[in-house]
Design brief:
five-stranded antiparallel beta sheet, 371 residues, globular, 2 helices, Neuraminidase
């Protein structure tokens, strides 16, 4: 009888780490960027041509469009987004390409910073905030721009030939603070895509070695001493760690998602949220991965994997990359809200790491009860 009870506990523990899919069929609401507001407990996403929306009901897939952006950025081609301290930073591609910053507490635009003199031949893809400054990736010319809200200046920060397109429509793509203090981590697109660190002080660009299976980097999220990356078009999400301050890295675990184009990732309340662009064809999806929110198991498979390059558990050489935020208030546009109800389905699957850990716990409990 004890064995049966323990077996039941083991089976339930396997499914404690699961995936959930929120299916959104609203036209044009494809998630180019995704963020999670831990205060409000809701998911925000950006969609080129649709603006910013939040998921108001994960079970039904209902969304609410915020920031109508009728002035001055009609159409709102916003790609990567970054949420910090109540402000939403977006990579903007319009007549004034560069940065858009909005206050999500009252749905208003605070300011727009033009980072180039032309909107021809430029594509701002992703954005992050570090130590009071904003960093944006520009994918066609292979550049990183820096915006200082105190001086209200957007300037070229780093340009590198490895950041230009190489057999892909875009070069440098995702960006976030690195686990190593004073550095950024960026990824490049396509089959030859890779991960790089950028030293903010010296502007030195260094390729992270020994993770050749991780290519075609799109979204990036730094979580303490771990880095979560989205592989596009490989449809995988990887959790990476390093034991040598990100000179090299290794794969801790991964999840393979049933989506044609996975684009973006961010931390949620109990796991991560991943955006599915799906070749800009409805229905669009946002996934919760490595999460405790469960339903069933059809849209994702998980596992653990290690790179043959580095061994041992990762050690954190990091300090917080959280930015000290300052904002310059410009003409604010009050956002209207239009709600689009959609249908959704939820799917879950167990994590490979979870199964191993659960099995070990089961054996330990069995030995304990037999004593």
């Amino acid at each position: 009888m004890k064995a049966l009870i323990l077996l039941a506990i083991f089976i339930l523990s396997i499914f404690a780490h699961v995936e959930k899919t929120i299916t959104i069929s609203t036209p044009y609401a494809y998630p180019e960027g995704v963020e999670y507001d831990s205060v409000k407990g809701i998911i925000f996403a950006s969609a080129a041509g649709y603006g910013i929306f939040n998921v108001t009901d994960e079970d039904t897939g209902a969304i609410t469009k915020i920031l109508n952006l009728t002035f001055p950025v009609t159409g709102a081609p916003i790609f990567g987004i970054h949420l910090y301290d109540g402000l939403l930073y977006g990579a903007l591609n319009h007549t004034s390409p560069g940065l858009i910053v909005a206050n999500i507490q009252n749905d208003t635009i605070l300011y727009i910073a033009n980072c180039t003199e032309t909107n021809v031949g430029v594509f701002f893809n992703d954005v992050t905030v570090y130590d009071g400054k904003v960093y944006l990736t520009e994918s066609l010319q292979g550049k990183i721009y820096q915006y200082d809200s105190v001086s209200n200046e957007c300037v070229l920060f780093v340009e590198d030939s490895r950041f230009t397109p190489n057999g892909s429509i875009a070069g440098i793509n995702g960006i976030d603070a690195s686990p190593v203090a004073g550095t950024l981590i960026v990824g490049t697109s396509g089959l030859y895509g890779a991960l790089y660190t950028v030293n903010i002080g010296t502007k030195t660009v260094t390729k992270i070695e020994n993770i050749t299976e991780v290519y075609g980097i799109d979204g990036i999220y730094r979580d303490a001493d771990k880095v979560i990356v989205v592989n596009n078009p490989g449809k995988k999400v990887y959790q990476l760690s390093s034991s040598d301050n990100w000179v090299t890295a290794m794969v801790d675990r991964w999840v393979d998602i049933n989506c044609t184009t996975v684009t973006t990732v961010a931390k949620s309340d109990d796991g991560y949220v991943v955006g599915c662009l799906n070749n800009r064809t409805a229905p669009f999806k946002i996934f919760r991965i490595w999460s405790t929110k469960a339903d069933n198991d059809t849209d994702a498979t998980s596992g653990s994997a290690t790179s043959g390059s580095t061994s041992g558990s990762a050690t954190s050489g990091s300090t917080s990359g959280a930015a000290t935020n300052t904002s310059t208030t410009a003409a604010a546009t009050t956002a209207g809200a239009t709600t689009a109800s959609t249908t959704a389905k939820s799917t879950t699957t167990g994590s490979g790491n979870s199964i191993v850990i659960s099995f070990m716990l089961f054996l330990a409990m069995l030995v304990f009860c037999s004593v």
